[in-house]
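Supplementary Methods. Inverse-folding protocol.

Structures were first reduced to a discrete structure-token string of length 128. This string, shown here, constituted the complete conditioning input.
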């Protein structure tokens, strides 16, 4: 679904999510695996596995698996269950983003001496 509106905030393109059953089942299975690894990490942490060298590496590996599994869950959810929406945004000139006028890009000399020649463009984010 596309619209021809060009005003700020109009939806330019909207594609609904696929919402496949296979993705939902995969998310549920990955969530169960996530809970098992979180329980394993918590049990190992409370039991003191981290006090030995190999136990510390094992807990680090389990923690890495937890975050990788979470990344797969979030990627599947984003791809399969969130719609693809593109809205019209206001196009700005380069100078408006810096809050500096085009003629002031080289800065403003504040003094005459070598130490007094401070340019305003060094810190261009000032309020108008």
């Amino acid at each position: 679904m596309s619209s021809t509106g060009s005003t700020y905030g109009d939806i330019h393109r909207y594609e609904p999510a696929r919402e496949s059953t296979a993705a939902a089942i995969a998310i549920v299975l990955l969530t169960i695996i996530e809970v098992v690894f979180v329980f394993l990490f918590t049990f190992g942490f409370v039991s003191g596995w981290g006090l030995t060298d190999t136990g510390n590496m094992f807990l680090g590996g389990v923690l890495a698996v937890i975050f990788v599994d979470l990344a797969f869950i979030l990627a599947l959810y984003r791809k399969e269950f969130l719609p693809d929406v593109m809205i019209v945004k206001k196009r700005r000139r380069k100078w408006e983003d810096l809050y500096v006028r085009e003629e002031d890009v080289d800065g403003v000399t504040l003094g005459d001496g070598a130490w007094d020649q401070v340019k305003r463009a060094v810190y261009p984010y000032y309020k108008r």
